[in-house]
Amino acid sequence: MSFYEYPSRLLENAVNEFSSLPGIGRKTAFRLVMNLLRRDTEEVKRFGESIIRLHDEIHYCKVCHNISDTEICSICNDDKRDRTVICVVENIQDVMAIENTRQYRGLYHVLGGIISPIDGIGPSELKIESLEEKIKTGGIREIIFALSTTMEGDTTNYYLYKKLSKYNSYMTTLARGVAIGDELEYTDEITLGRAINNRNPYQQS
pTM for this one? Predict the structure, then answer.
């Protein structure tokens, strides 16, 4: 759409901002903006304030890099979690997906991505150094590689395995109940739960 198809510059600016979000085309952005226009002023203010507060006040856990309202997330603060097991995941969505299975009671480490040369993402862009520091301190019985079963996920698994194998921790990967090529966050809870419970030694994967 060109500017002349919009009756208002303010409307066009709002559509431009919404359509800058991933997965939001201009038609969807227009519908969202029109929906906001139909809402009460207080509703729109709450909406806007929640986004601003999200950006300004959100924390990333100092221990596992999960999103949190505090400097250390509720999972890392939970004394009932098994602190000898670390589940390595790509992103926050994967933490949520695994937690929804209610099958896992260990801790997490969020890498913040996976190795993908085509996207310009190498090991130095990920939270690998802080993971290694955790393993160095000892007390970690098992490291679970719970990355998506894509080529990039498998490449990252292998890189981590080679880097961490010198610390003699038991390393496992999800059972292949998760189909090859699947994104972890879109896997159903039952399949994901079984994959966690039936995880395999990494060397056999």
Answer: 0.77
